[in-house]
Amino acid sequence: MEMQQSSGFIVWFTGMKRAGKSTLAARVVERFALAGRAAQLLDEDGEAGMLLAGLGPAKEDHAVRVKRLGFVARAVARAGGVAVCAALSPYRDAREALRRDARRFVEIFVDSPMETLIARDGKEALYKRALAGELTQVAGVDVPYEPPAHAEAVIRTDLEPVDDSVRRVLQALVDQKYVGPAEFGRLTGGERPRRRARASRASRSPARRAGRA
After folding, report:
1. How buried is residue 195: exposed, middle or buried, by Cβ count under 10 Å (0-12/13-18/19+)?
2. With CB atoms 3.0 to 4.6 Å apart as the test, which of 25, 61, 79, 200 could cross-link to 86 if both were Cys?
């Protein structure tokens, strides 16, 4: 049965700086727009940054960032739209709190090894300076970045092209039943979603297997 488009949801991209969150989030919004679905990009490094004015690098401030972006994202979802958020959001408890509040929430972990992040650093040299001790409060260097415990998809942007990553994000939305097969086709130019593999009877019943041993 095709999902009704009136059901909004949140797609939350988290990952360290330079991992590729903004690129993927923008591409996903573009796909929804081309398919005729209302979608709003909330990128903390883009226009949504105005919502975060005055916040610093402390853990408490990162929690406020998630709350502010999440407040707007929930409003978009309640109106039937797709809220696509790109945010460092380095602390797991803040993201999990938003997941509980939003309910219709898909978390995408955008990952790359440190060598790749450094190679993408550009003139700012964020990671090189942090590793040299010239900068502090850099997530993943001198303060934690806590990867998601229950991400609906893990994207390694160093291992696959952007279009492949976008397709995997859209597949995750199908797996969570926020996007139906027909809409997936519109989003991907006519492709069909992959069917989720069903666990075998044996793998679904570990206690029964143990009892037979």
Report:
1. exposed
2. 25
Question: CA–CA distance from 204 to each of 118, 192, 199 (Å)?
Answer: 43, 27, 6
Task: Answer whether residue 211 shows pLDDT above 50.
Answer: no
Residue 52 DSSP one-character state: G
Give residue for tokens 């806590």.
146
Tokens of 104: 């219709």
Number of neighbouring beta carbons within 10 Å of residue 96: 16
Task: Write down the pTM of the prediction.
Answer: 0.88
Question: Does the structure show a pLDDT above 50 at 20?
Answer: yes
Question: 112 catalytic, yes or no?
Answer: no
**pLDDT tier at 197 (50, 70, 90 boundaries)?**
low
Q: What is the DSSP letter of 134?
A: S
Closest CA to 36 of 187, 192, 173: 187
Catalytic residue, chosen from 6, 7, 89, 200, is: 89
Examine the pLDDT at 99 and tell me if it is beyond 80.
yes
Provide the 3-class DSSP secondary structure of residue 64: helix
Q: Are 91 and 63 in contact (CB under 8 A)?
A: yes
Residues 6+ apart with CB under 8 A from 197: none
Residue 59, token pair as written in the block = 């853990």
The one-letter amino acid code at 182 reads A
Per-residue model confidence as pLDDT tens digits over 61-81: 999 999 999 999 999 999 999
